[in-house]
């Protein structure tokens, strides 16, 4: 027994094994259970974790099922941007040899499409698809008549422009989109603001005296899909001075490889009274489990 103990004590390197000695092939399966931000954190541990954290087999499970479709749209947007000299080649998605980690990182950045009136991106934490549709991509009744509507330039919109309603009897704002959404459940929301926001002596203010007519009858929001899903929500618009997301409804995508047409609208067509003082920024689409701030749901 003493000889055995002496032999163990004399063995060089006994007990010196560390995380750095683990092969990447053993580390990678563990990383599959982590979210992308966590993977990036553990990549700092040592060379083995850094190598495994860049492996395609890890990031393939984090990308949306139809990432090739999304990457093609991102590549087209990058090509358009580079042709007018507005961006450099870093982070582009057009290279066929880009790693899946690089593709994930690129898809996390907003990709404009449809002449810059729409954007999509994926969440850094979960990889869920998000989308924003500008007011300029919506069909707004009376938008060309300056007695009723005008476009305001503002840094409070990701598109730097909102539609502002001065007064109208018949309010109707509608839009539609055809897109290959990754399979899953989504929510659609309108981003609205009562009052015209602006700066006065460096402070943000809004014109509350120009807000009227929204407390008399509710505004109706509707959503329908090409596969027969339909939902309706009614809200009295409120919260002047704040951007609020009004939840229209949810929809489910069963196939990541098929185009889905969404139609959505908001209307208040009671012609017994006028209404005014409303800013329409955009329509957002988020994964259903995403909980944005300033959101009103039924």
From TrEMBL:
It holds the Pfam family PP2. Residues 16-62 form the F-box domain. SUPFAM superfamilies: F-box domain (SSF81383). It comes from the Eukaryota. InterPro entries: F-box-like_dom_sf, F-box_dom, PP2-like. PANTHER family: F-BOX PROTEIN PP2-A15, OS04G0571300 PROTEIN. This is F-box domain-containing protein. It comes from Aegilops tauschii subsp. strangulata (Goatgrass).
């Amino acid at each position: 027994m003493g000889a055995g103990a002496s032999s163990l004590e004399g063995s060089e390197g006994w007990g010196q094994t560390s995380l750095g000695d683990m092969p990447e092939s053993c580390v990678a399966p563990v990383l599959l259970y982590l979210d992308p931000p966590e993977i990036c954190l553990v990549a700092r541990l040592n060379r083995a974790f850094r190598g495994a954290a860049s492996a395609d087999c890890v990031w393939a499970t984090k990308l949306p099922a139809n990432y090739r479709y999304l990457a093609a749209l991102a590549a087209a947007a990058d090509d358009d941007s580079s042709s007018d000299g507005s961006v450099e080649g870093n982070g582009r998605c057009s290279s066929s040899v880009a790693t899946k980690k690089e593709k994930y990182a690129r898809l996390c950045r907003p990709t404009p499409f449809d002449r810059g009136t729409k954007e999509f991106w994926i969440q850094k934490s979960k990889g869920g698809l998000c989308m924003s549709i500008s007011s300029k991509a919506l069909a707004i009744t009376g938008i060309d008549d300056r007695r009723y509507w005008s476009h305001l330039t503002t840094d409070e919109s990701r598109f730097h422009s909102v539609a502002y309603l001065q007064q109208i009897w018949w309010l109707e704002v509608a839009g539609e989109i055809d897109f290959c959404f990754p399979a899953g459940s989504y929510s659609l929301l309108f981003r609205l603001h009562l009052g015209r926001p602006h700066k006065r002596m460096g402070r943000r203010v809004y014109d509350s005296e120009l807000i009227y007519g929204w407390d008399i009858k509710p505004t109706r929001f509707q959503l329908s899909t090409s596969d027969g899903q339909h939902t309706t929500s009614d809200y009295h618009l409120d919260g002047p001075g704040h951007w609020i997301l009004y939840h229209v409804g949810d929809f489910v995508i069963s196939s990541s490889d098929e185009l889905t047409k969404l139609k959505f609208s908001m209307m208040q067509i009671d012609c017994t009274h006028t209404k005014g003082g409303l800013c329409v920024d955009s329509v957002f689409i988020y994964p259903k489990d995403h909980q944005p701030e300033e959101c009103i749901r039924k």
